Amino acid sequence: MSEYCDSAPGHAFHGPYHEHEYGFPVSDESELFERLVLEINQAGLSWLTVLKKRSAFRLAFDHFDVDLVAAYGDKQRQRLLNDAGIIRNRLKVDAVIHNAQVIRDMRDSHGGFSGWIEAHHPRTHAEWVKLFKRTFRFTGPEIVNEFLMSTGYLPGAHRDDCPVQQRIVAARPAWLRNR
């Protein structure tokens, strides 16, 4: 993603994400869920659009509290579809609610979303895509790739000569631990 390392620094939205989040290891359930929601909503749109709407997504989806989102019913679904601050796509909204339910259930089987990912790591990109498609909704190859790169499970978020890459390596992301 060399272009991102060139264009993001100094940008009001891309800069902070590039410098402090993209590619760093994530294990917190709400943060993982947020990244998945943002990647799902980016499909067909620019990442800048999603980053600009990020705070509205946080409010709309109760700060990505998995239990709250998993319990959403018709009233909350309609509220989301009427919320001009987020991306109002029924398939994406339904996928987010469904995926929250799946993540909630992962607590019993794997101790949570992070435990589920760790239990399946390492895998090739193609294997991850198959697993995500079996498990979640609205998770195609690009969404899975970006989600896993952004949370430190696949390499490639930054060029080797990007100063952020050195900080990511020091944080020991999963892709580096399993080499």
UniProtKB/TrEMBL annotation:
Zn(2+) binds at H18. Keywords: Metal-binding, Zinc. GO terms for biological process: base-excision repair. Signal peptide: none annotated. The keyword Zinc applies. GO terms for molecular function: DNA-3-methyladenine glycosylase activity; metal ion binding. The keyword Zinc applies. InterPro entries: Adenine_glyco, DNA-3mA_glycosylase, DNA_glycosylase. The lineage of its organism: Bacteria, Pseudomonadati, Pseudomonadota, Gammaproteobacteria, Oceanospirillales. This is DNA-3-methyladenine glycosylase I. SUPFAM superfamilies: DNA-glycosylase (SSF48150).
